């Protein structure tokens, strides 16, 4: 049970970190290239959400193999675990995007 919970936390935080880290470095690159950093960060975060989920799961083929086992071999425990890992990664990626948008909103409020 402890391993299951820790894997959920890993999936969530890896997806969140991929979005936040990549967006932060893209914003830094946008500053260097004299482009709007927050727009660049949000555009990148929107475009890499699926890659953040795939990274958090450790590759897509292992997920499909576990789906196959769960459906065809009737191992519903592993199927449910995989669905929870995918949901945790999706929530982490979406919260990473929301965090970048929150930074934008705070910047707008700060400048007023």
TrEMBL record:
It comes from Clostridium colicanis DSM 13634. Keywords: Membrane, Transmembrane, Transmembrane helix. The chain crosses the membrane at residues 12-32, 44-62, 82-100. The gene is ytrH. InterPro entries: Spore_YtrH (IPR025689). This is Sporulation membrane protein YtrH.
